[in-house]
From TrEMBL:
One cellular-component annotation, GO: cytosol
PANTHER family cross-referenced by the UniProt entry: CRP FAMILY TRANSCRIPTIONAL REGULATORY PROTEIN, HTH-TYPE TRANSCRIPTIONAL REGULATOR ARCR
Tree of life domain: Bacteria
Domain Cyclic nucleotide-binding: 9-78
Species of the source: Streptomyces fuscichromogenes
Name the UniProt record assigns to this protein: Cyclic nucleotide-binding domain-containing protein
Length: 154
C-alpha cells in the first residue's frame, strides 16, 4: 500500500530552516487508535512522525473509509493547513502508538511570512508531499474501485 516515501523535512529544508521550524515544535504522543483529524474538519496544525504509524483515509460514500497511505518516521502528517480554506482533505488515525513533533499552523504561517525563503522552502516541501499524496490517493482508489485496478488502461 505504500508508494515511495514522501519527501521528509530533513531532505527538503536546509539545516538552518529546519532549526528555525523545529524551535516551534511540540512533542506529542498518540495511543493506537487515536483519530488525529477527520476529513472536513478545521486544519490548524501538522505533525512530523518520530515513531509509529499513521494511516491516511478518505471517506467513500456507502463504503467504509479507504486507507490511502500509511506514514512513518520523518513523514509529514497534514498539509491542508497551508491552503485556504484550511480544511482537512483526508482523515488520519494512529495505527500504532505514535510520537511526533506537532506544529501550530498559525505560528508556522507567521514564520513563513516573516522569512520568505523559509516560506518558499516550506511551500515546496508541502507541495511535493501533496503531489505524492494525490498520486497515492488516485492509485489506491483505482485499486479499490476500478474494474481492473490502477494498472488497467481505458
Amino acid at each position: 500500500m505504500n508508494a515511495p516515501s514522501t519527501p521528509s523535512m530533513l531532505r527538503a529544508l536546509p539545516a538552518g530552516q529546519q532549526r528555525q521550524l523545529m524551535r516551534h515544535a511540540r512533542e506529542v504522543s498518540f495511543p493506537q487508535g487515536t483519530r488525529l483529524f477527520e476529513e472536513g474538519g478545521h486544519a490548524d496544525r501538522f505533525w512530523i512522525i518520530r515513531t509509529g504509524r499513521v494511516e491516511l483515509d478518505m471517506h467513500v460514500p456507502g463504503r467504509r473509509a479507504a486507507v490511502i497511505e500509511s506514514l512513518g518516521h520523518n513523514e509529514l502528517v497534514g498539509w491542508s493547513w497551508l491552503f485556504a480554506p484550511p480544511v482537512w482533505h483526508l482523515g488520519a488515525e494512529a495505527t500504532t502508538p505514535v510520537r511526533a513533533y506537532e506544529f501550530d499552523s498559525a505560528t508556522v504561517l507567521d514564520l513563513c511570512r516573516q522569512d520568505p525563503e523559509l516560506g518558499n522552502a516550506v511551500g515546496r516541501w508541502v507541495g511535493q508531499v501533496l503531489a505524492h499524496r494525490l498520486r497515492a490517493s488516485r492509485k489506491r482508489l483505482l485499486d479499490l474501485y476500478a474494474p481492473y485496478g490502477a494498472g488497467a488502461s481505458v
